[in-house]
Design a protein that fits this description.
30% helix; 7-stranded mixed sheet; D-Maltodextrin-Binding Protein, domain 2; 8 helices; elongated
């Protein structure tokens, strides 16, 4: 089978999760992006590209719930995993409250989620897409506030910003190519059943409601 695993913060836990499920592929070259072993293949794209690679080139992937929601890919998500936990929040200088952001500029790596959330709240905000260093946006005047992932909150506090509203909780999930689910039904279901017993931290997984 072809597994799509994100490079970056989820990579080590994702590979540990695969090992617990009986899939072992040795990653022995930091420059390579595809590894093959024992009839399996590991594809290592950027985290944000995992849904696309899973939908068009893979069978099973691991990504964050935010990544799947932002991509709008047509994937089946059978398992939620007990790692990669954080949250996506609205972050701004202390002077702002949520309603103050109406008509203002919001910078984010998650434009689809952000636009949908503000629309649901009846707030007309201008969404600006940035790919990194979001905390700079309010300081430089590019945006009035940001929507970003919060883990410890340390970077946010160092840049004199506060979390004013959580949009969603995030965790790693298993995603499955819907075509592969039909063509490789027994193989994929066997993996999901075995993977459902343990996640990368050795704890029982919870079912993810699509």
């Amino acid at each position: 089978m072809k597994f799509v695993i994100p490079r970056g913060r989820l990579m080590d836990d994702s590979l540990a999760f695969l090992r617990n499920a009986g899939i072992t592929v040795e990653i022995n070259d930091s420059r390579k992006l595809i590894f093959r072993q024992d009839g399996n293949e590991i594809i290592l794209p950027r985290a944000r590209d995992v849904p696309v690679y899973t939908e068009y080139a893979g069978d099973i992937g691991i990504c964050g719930t935010d990544t799947l929601a932002e991509s709008r890919s047509n994937l089946f998500a059978p398992l939620s995993l007990d790692f990669g936990k954080c949250r996506l929040s609205i972050i701004a200088p202390r002077k702002y409250r949520l309603r103050d952001l109406d008509g203002l500029d919001i910078a984010t790596k998650h434009p689809n989620i952000t636009s949908k959330y503000f629309s649901s709240m009846g707030i007309d905000a201008n969404i600006i897409t940035l790919n990194g260093s979001l905390e700079l946006a309010p300081e430089t005047g590019i945006a009035d506030a940001i929507v970003d992932i919060v883990q410890t909150g340390e970077t946010m506090r160092k840049n004199k910003l506060v979390e004013i509203r959580k949009i969603m909780d995030i965790s790693a999930i298993v995603v499955v190519n819907r075509v592969s689910q039909k063509i490789k039904y027994e193989e994929i279901n066997s993996f999901i059943e075995k993977a459902g017993e343990f996640n990368g931290n050795g704890k029982v997984c919870k079912k993810y409601i699509e």
